[in-house]
TrEMBL record:
The chain crosses the membrane at residues 25-42, 54-71, 91-124. It comes from Cutibacterium acnes subsp. acnes. Coiled coil: none annotated. Residues 3-144 form the Dicarboxylate carrier MatC N-terminal domain. This is Dicarboxylate carrier MatC N-terminal domain-containing protein. Keywords: Membrane, Transmembrane, Transmembrane helix. InterPro entries: MatC_N. It comes from the Bacteria.
Length: 156
């Protein structure tokens, strides 16, 4: 019965988040509290201790950073600058996205910062030049993962 309740709460959270265009996690937190405290008879402090607060703060910080960069036009300006610089050889753009992602990650920004900064740029630029956006996103992802393993990175 609890599994069914959890699955239903998850489905409702996803539906509300998609319809209202808000973060699904913000909708799921009250459901988690209600299910834990009332259905599973846990103490409220035990329910709160189970929440992954470290991951929550990382995602919150990344979302805020991405929101500012998108709102003030930084991401679009960087994407347009990359398109202008590689107008003669647009197929080299994913390679440059990979190398820039490695550099940013290796300098200490880390994988999550690379994904926040480079993945939207990769998607925008690859879509504009006719390359599959998945290729650009994969280059940003692989570059971030590759760069974080280097000795100069924060996790290397």
């Amino acid at each position: 019965m609890i599994s069914l309740t959890i699955g239903l709460a998850l489905a409702v959270s996803i539906a509300i988040g998609r319809v209202r265009k808000i973060n699904i996690g913000l909708v799921a937190i009250p459901f988690a509290y209600i299910i834990g405290a009332f259905f599973m008879h846990m103490k409220p402090s035990d329910v709160i201790d189970l929440w992954p607060t470290h991951i929550f703060f990382v995602i919150l910080a990344i979302s805020l950073f991405f929101g500012f960069a998108m709102a003030n036009g930084t991401l679009a300006e960087i994407a347009n600058g990359l398109l202008y610089r590689f107008r003669a050889a647009p197929v080299m753009l994913p390679v440059m996205i990979l190398l820039v992602s490695v550099l940013i990650s290796a300098l200490g920004a880390g994988y999550y910062a690379v994904m926040v900064l480079m993945a939207p740029i990769a998607l925008l630029t690859c879509r504009k030049i006719g390359i599959n956006p998945l290729v650009g996103a994969l280059c940003a992802d692989c570059g971030g993962r590759w760069g974080r393993t280097l000795w100069s990175a924060s996790t290397g």
